[in-house]
Amino acid sequence: EQIGFECYFVAGSQMSAFLLGVPDNGIIGLRDVVDHVRHIAARTTIPILVDADTGFGNAVNVHYTVAEIVRSGVAGLQIEDQEAPKKSGTLAGRRCISLDDAVGKIRAAVEVRDEIDPSFVICARCDALGAEGGTFESTLERCVAYVRDGGADLVWLNSVHTREEL
Predict the structure, then answer these.
(1) pLDDT per residue as tens digits for the range 45-104
(2) pTM for the structure as a whole
(3) C-alpha span between 166 and 152 (Å, rounded)
(4) SS (H, E, C) the chain
(5) Phi, psi of 88 (to 5 degrees)
(6) Cα atoms in the 13 Å half-sphere on the side-chain side of 53
(7) Cβ–Cβ under 8 Å, residues 11 and 37
């Protein structure tokens, strides 16, 4: 903020490495994330987007995760569509949950966000590119569904390799 950044992203890989000294494999938990970002939010006025990994479980877990993160004082979060235990978004061997399950998790996130703070941002991260069985066409279908059916505010299309894909 002091050098001019207008926003900040707190990555799960950063928290895993800095807080616990472990790889970005879903080891860090919700309490670790919430406590860490609460401290950051208390010391800045710029918006913070938080990596909430897979939302720490199914749609029920996502509902609780989003409520806790909204109350931490940050501006938004991203939830990825990987199976648990997740893998780093840059590594091979990633697997995604079904489209229906992913949309259900996003709906749960949006529902609780709307109850607590409608200005909070929900970003749906799509890890299907480079994941087992993922094609560009199926990935694009997922991204559209995350907004149209899930209600996400924006989509993070992970592992894009070309301008043409963008």
Answers:
(1) 999 999 999 999 999 999 999 999 999 999 999 999 998 877 766 666 788 999 999 999
(2) 0.92
(3) 19
(4) CCCCCCCEEECHHHHHHHHHCCCCCCCCCHHHHHHHHHHHHCCCCCCEEEECCCCCCCHHHHHHHHHHHHCCCCCEEEEECECCCCCCCCCCCCCECCHHHHHHHHHHHHHHHHHHCCCCEEEEEECCCCCCCCCHHHHHHHHHHHHHCCCCCEEEECCCCCCCCC
(5) -55, 140
(6) 30
(7) no
